[in-house]
Design brief:
The complex is a heterodimer of chains A (about 300) and B (about 290). Chain A is an all-alpha fold. Chain A has two domains: about 1-50; about 55-295, MetI-like fold, CATH 1.10.3720.10. Chain A has eleven helices and two strands, in the order ααββααααααααα. By secondary structure, chain B is mainly α. Chain B has a single domain (about 50-60, about 65-285), classed as MetI-like (MetI-like fold, Orthogonal Bundle), CATH 1.10.3720.10. In chain B, about 75% of the residues lie in helices and about 0% in strands. The longest helix of chain B is centred in the last third of the chain and has 35 residues, at about 250-285. Chain B is flat. Classes of the chains: A mainly alpha (about 300), B mainly alpha (about 290). The interface between A and B is large, with 83 and 92 residues.
Chain lengths: ~300, ~290
């Protein structure tokens, strides 16, 4: 009787372990499944266009000729521009919150920033559509650019605003980790606050800050809603920052439910596949940087 | 500045002052757009809130009035279903990482995959849910939307569960095992309850994250002008209402988009605040 119970318990133990491991394996399978599904669903387009898909600038759902270059350019330009615009502010904010501000100010401000990072992107899009677009249009009229209001530049601006809280909080966390004896040693040698930040804090936190920036880039690359709402949705090669354009994510969001031809749908999924590969690579790079930091 | 200092010392002090001022100004500037967003959200949103807005269904296109009752219900159903799908998978996977395979090779693969899954753009998740659920069923459905949201939820909950359970001291496990309690009961009755606050925090953070997601719902839950409780039918959600109304040509719908945004933000921020209070509670317990 007693031995029977023990045996049962051993069986439950093994069962529970297998269940837990199964769920862990499921996470791996899900990621593999996502990749396989994307390849499978985009196969008609891969077969039809081959590598030409990557550098063809024609996107013509009527003639069924598809090339993704305009969207690759749209995504890269908006994300990089957003990164360039957001980084100085994010870095300054991180230094301010991590080093300069007294805890009484830094703690509530950090709290608010983290809440802002949680605001859904569709709401950033709504705000951009009704407030940022008219503002940009006003400036475009002042400087004589085509006054669309929408376009690449506006999309980059929204992206910059959206990734800022994120990049800032990652960088601040790293800056806070700098050991205070290092800083005190610098002060003891007579360094000013800025010299300590410049020569002790920033070099120590460098790879962490870099990882934060790369993670923010990954987020900007895949951002859909806010960009879709203000980029103008024009599927042609953009020639200037004021042009209406499309990113990889926004063209999928716009055309997926309207695509009636199989090749059109497959071409959109192939863009999704490209986006998946790009973001996975970017995130793995960030992860490597973080691991390197931990080793140090 | 003290005149007795050499010029170089004075310059260093000046430089310090100047750079720190620039940093402070740069740090405070982004607060302007961020506060503008909140201010305008409340200004525009509050004016469109009314009891009718919460209780009525959407009016036909172009007509004013109507509400977002179906979208509120839809968001709750979509997120609830996603939680039902995602949480058991992710908590068990987290238990595996923390209790069974701390240093194993499989665990490392699972961790990398969770990170990869977290980085997958939400629109791509939408495509995958479309291929997995919408295509076989032949029509849009709330279920497919919940599958998409569950996919976004899993990595967050897996990682927080692992981190929290790792913090549970081994003494507790050993005490339980020494009393003859089998390991699986130790995990369920001792380890998991000890880390419960942390695990719930992780779940709340994940729920707050998926409640505002729009892109994965565009071609899964799709949206619906009518009230539905059936997860196999297309269903409306707050983020979908905001997107569709904002892009519409009707001024009254723009007003309602702001109202829906305010409701959504209050929901998401509420969840975030609760999860942070919980997180602080854990920190206090230590």
């Amino acid at each position: 009787m007693h031995e029977e119970r023990l045996k049962n318990q051993a069986r439950y133990d093994a069962l529970f372990k297998h269940l837990a491991r199964g769920m862990g394996l499921l996470v791996v399978l899900l990621v593999a499944g996502i990749f396989v599904t994307l390849v499978e669903e985009s196969w008609p387009a891969i077969k039809a266009f081959g590598l030409r898909f990557l550098w063809s600038t024609t996107w013509d759902p009527i003639a069924l000729e598809f090339g993704a270059l305009p969207f690759l350019v749209g995504t890269l330009v908006t994300s990089l521009l957003a990164l360039v615009m957001a980084t100085p502010f994010a870095l300054a904010g991180a230094i301010f919150l991590g080093e300069l501000a007294p805890p009484k100010i830094a703690n509530p401000v950090s709290f608010i920033i983290e809440l802002l990072a949680g605001i859904p992107s569709v709401i950033y899009g709504l705000w951009a559509l009704f407030y940022l677009v008219p503002t940009v249009r006003y400036f475009q009229m002042k400087i004589g650019a085509p006054p669309y209001g929408l376009g690449l530049f506006t999309a980059s601006l929204v992206l910059a605003v959206m990734i800022l809280p994120y990049a800032m909080s990652v960088a601040r966390d790293v800056i806070r980790l700098v050991p205070s004896d290092l800083k005190e040693a610098a002060y003891g040698l007579g360094a000013t606050r800025w010299e300590t930040i410049r020569h002790v804090v920033l070099p120590y936190a460098r790879s962490g800050i870099l990882a934060g920036i790369v993670l923010a880039l990954g987020r900007a690359l895949g951002e859909t809603m806010a960009v879709t709402m203000v980029i103008g949705n024009r599927s042609a090669m953009p020639h200037s920052l004021w042009d209406l354009a499309n990113t990889m994510a926004s063209v999928i969001a716009n055309e997926f439910t309207e695509a009636t031809e199989d090749v059109h749908l497959a071409a959109l999924v192939e863009i999704g596949l490209l986006l998946f590969v790009i973001t996975v690579v970017v995130n793995l790079i960030a992860r490597l940087v973080i691991i390197k930091t931990k080793v140090q | 500045m003290n005149a007795s200092y050499p010029a170089r010392e004075n310059w260093r002090r000046w430089k310090n002052q100047i750079v720190l001022t620039i940093i402070t100004v740069l740090a405070l500037l982004p607060a302007v757009p961020l506060f503008l967003i909140l201010f305008q959200l409340f200004k525009e949103g509050l004016s469109s809130l009314s009891l009718d807005f919460f209780l009525h269904l959407p009016a036909p296109p172009g007509e004013s009035g109507g509400g977002i009752a179906n979208a509120i219900v839809g968001t709750i159903i979509l997120v609830g279903l996603a939680t039902l799908i995602g949480v058991p998978i992710s908590v068990m996977a987290g238990i595996y990482l923390s209790e069974y395979g701390r240093a194993g090779r499989l665990s490392e693969v699972i961790r990398v995959c969770a990170d990869v899954l977290q980085g997958v753009p939400s629109i791509v998740i939408g495509i995958v849910a479309y291929a997995w659920v919408v295509k076989p069923l032949g029509h849009f459905s709330a279920l497919s939307g919940s599958v998409a949201l569950a996919l976004m939820m899993i990595p967050v909950v897996v990682r927080t569960t692992e981190e929290v359970l790792r913090l549970v001291p081994d003494i507790l496990r050993e005490a339980s095992l020494a009393l003859g309690v089998p390991y699986w009961r130790t995990v369920l009755k001792v380890v998991l309850p000890t880390g419960m606050v942390g695990v719930s925090t992780g779940i709340l953070i994940a729920v707050a994250r998926i409640a505002g997601e729009t892109a994965p719902l565009l071609f899964t839950a799709f949206g619906n002008q009518f009230m539905t409780w059936n997860p196999l039918e297309p269903m409306n959600a707050l983020p979908l209402v905001i997107f569709n109304y904002a892009m519409s040509p009707y001024e009254d719908w723009w007003r309602q988009a702001w109202g829906a945004s305010l409701v959504l933000v209050l929901m998401v921020l509420g969840l975030n605040v609760v999860s942070r209070v919980l997180a602080r509670k854990i920190a206090g317990e230590k």
